[in-house]
Design goal:
By secondary structure, the chain is mainly α. Helix content is about 65%, strand content about 5%. The chain contains ten helices and three strands; from the N terminus they run ααααααααααβββ. Strands 1-2-3 form a three-stranded antiparallel sheet, with no helix packed on it. Helix 1 packs across helix 9, helix 1 packs antiparallel against helix 10 and helix 5 runs antiparallel to helix 6. The chain is globular, with a radius of gyration of 21 Å. About 40% of the residues are buried. The C terminus is likely disordered. This is Transmembrane protein.
């Protein structure tokens, strides 16, 4: 029974890995690429600076206003009869706004600082420093580094997550300040981090001599880092290393976790760059409008069909907040439900993944990440 259970578990985890790498990640990247190019083609195409400023100003402004009223909006949507449909519409609109905000700020920084290695290094360092100081380093991670499915997660738990710098949820100034920090500071930090890292990865892979070769190298590098981090997280979260108060000093725990996120961030950016540039080469390069439309709508259709649209979202429309007592950075999510059950001869084995929760009645917080439960009838 145990052998069969372990075999089933390993098979499901392998399928999850394949699904994330070869369907979910390409779909998300293609949506972002297609949407980005649609803005290039139709938002003041004759003036890149005006296009960037208008796109960034409008998108950041709208996201900020939505974030200020996020709790009221979620309450309304959760109580609506067409809850699922309305959340999907909101996810789609927020995804477009996210792309517009990223494109706008990215292009503005490009214009004023150029694509030099100095600019890349400064953006990379400042961006990571911002999210590190605000305890939101996981915000730099996108698919494949972290994934989620609407089948297992309520959309209201993922979208429009706000960093609560001020704890009062009722005061108007608290809402405004928390939303400002989430949208304009954390959001900008993540974007400039990605820009700097993107240029660094490109400088490493571009000497290959062709866009195709450099894209394959970037994709291979990104996926190799992701797979290494995937197995590393499995080990760390299933071992006793999470009990920092027993086995690790708090400082060591924090260092290991943040280092893991930093490494994974490189892998995620490299994989995105590889897929993005491969699509530039192969997805109707002579028909830019059709290529952008196909990337946008086909990818959106695939993600909504497989209930993976939540993976389209990023800062500034949400952020990933770490708990000081938890190893949140090692959690890479699961798109497929990893569960194996067998009821035979009075036995029931199940494996579940849980997000960490703090136990208020205990002197320490425990993470129940992977447990095998045996029940006798």
């Amino acid at each position: 029974m145990a052998t069969k259970y372990i075999s089933s578990l390993c098979w499901k985890k392998f399928l999850n890995l394949v699904f994330v790498l070869f369907l979910l990640t390409p779909a998300v990247v293609n949506f972002w690429r297609g949407t980005w190019y649609l803005f290039d083609l139709f938002l003041f195409p004759g003036d890149a600076v005006v296009s960037a400023i208008v796109g960034a100003t409008a998108s950041f402004g709208v996201i900020f206003m939505i974030t200020v009223i996020e709790d009221h909006l979620k309450k309304f949507l959760n109580g609506a009869k067409a809850k699922n449909a309305l959340f999907r519409v909101l996810i789609y609109l927020l995804s477009i706004l996210c792309v517009a905000s990223w494109r706008g700020l990215w292009m503005i920084v490009d214009y004023y600082t150029t694509n030099s290695s100095t600019s890349a290094g400064v953006c990379h360092g400042i961006g990571f420093f911002i999210v590190l100081m605000l305890n939101t380093p996981r915000s730099i991670i996108a698919v494949p580094g972290y994934c989620v499915s609407e089948r297992q997660t309520e959309p209201s738990e993922v979208i429009l997550t706000v960093k609560h710098c001020l704890r009062s949820k009722t005061a108007c100034y608290s809402r405004i300040w928390n939303s400002f920090v989430t949208v304009f500071i954390i959001g900008a930090g993540v974007i400039v981090y990605w820009r700097g890292t993107w240029i660094i990865v490109a400088s490493v892979t571009w000497p290959c001599g062709s866009k195709f070769k450099s894209s394959v190298l970037a994709l291979g590098l990104g996926y190799a880092v992701f797979i290494a981090c995937y197995f590393m997280s499995e080990y760390l979260l299933s071992s006793e290393l999470y009990m920092a108060h027993v086995l690790l000093l708090r400082a060591m725990q924090t260092f290991v976790e943040k280092s893991f996120v930093y490494l994974l961030g490189f892998g995620v950016v490299a994989s995105w760059q590889g897929i993005w540039h491969l699509m530039d080469v192969y997805l109707l390069p002579d028909q830019p409008i059709v290529s952008a439309l196909v990337g946008h709508f086909v990818a959106a259709g695939v993600l909504f069909l497989f209930q993976g649209s939540l993976n389209l979202l990023s800062t500034p429309a949400t952020c990933a907040i770490s708990d000081e007592l938890m190893l949140h950075g090692f959690h890479m999510g699961n798109f497929l439900k990893i569960r194996s059950e067998s009821s035979k001869a009075g036995e029931n084995y199940s494996l579940e993944y849980h997000l960490p929760e703090e136990n208020a009645n205990s002197s320490h917080a425990e993470i129940l990440y992977m447990s095998t439960i045996y029940k006798s009838n």
